[in-house]
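Late entry, written up from scratch paper. The run itself happened at the end of the previous shift, but nothing got recorded in the book at the time, so transcribing now.
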Amino acid sequence: MKYIVTGGAGFIGSTLAKRMIRDGHEVVIIDNFSTGLRERVPEGATVVEWDLTSEDIQTLASHMQGADGVFHFAALPRVPFSIAEPIISSKHNVFGTLHTLVAARDAGVRRVVYSASSSAYGNQPVLPQHPDMKPQPLSPYALQKLMGEHFCSQFYALYGLETVSLRYFNVYGPGMAEDGAYAPVFAIFKRQYLAKEPLTICGDGSQTRSFCHVDDVVEANVKAMMSEKAGKGEVLNVSGPTSVSIKDIADRFNHPITYLDPRPGDVPHSLGDIERTKELIDWEPKIHFDHGFEALLKHWGVR
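Output as recorded:
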């Protein structure tokens, strides 16, 4: 089978591309390399350097010809960046997704698996968070990813393009971004630890997150693409089984901590209900956070 991976030079996309090549599939990576790294592109993948904000849908569709499915990872992630640059992030996260869906429809692609975000839940008073809960996006990024879900469900209803939206909770693992102002908390702690600087926590550290290893997230994508029970515009959670506080993570570094003001747009707690995910794509996480986190620290040379 032939599969398109948008954002295939990114953290999750490149890991998925490697998996699909290993499984014997033809993989075409579409990436503009604005945040993706060329060294992440796996051997055996065909690379198309393309910006999904381009309105040349015909050319984009031509790159998708003959593909059975599209894994749509391409985005400008991070809540703080979307708050600082709402227009730029909307162009990529909203119109990039819309252009991908139109091109997939025009190319006759069977299914699109869309990388959505648990940030759509916002500050929900009830945990775990279920896809049927009313969304409460607290940032442009959360709203942008939510709009992508709605486009996916509409494209199934209007055009018959099979779609599945996977709401990722916090994804971690080897290959995750480590640099820049908007790096994830793990990488920021690692950078501060190695520089012998105090670890910085925004807020009091009581905020909790459900972390899911990248290998588990890749497995969810593969199952979402292949499942005969899914494809009708569903929204499914891809979450770890438990949540961990930010302070707990910092404490595992055994290093001094400095507390800063809370960041706007951050949600206090997150944990996803995966019962529907189990039912429709037969997925649940396999890698326990304690094991995955320790392996990541060893990979980084922190342990």
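DSSP finds ten helices and 13 strands in the chain.
(Scratch paper discarded after transcription.)
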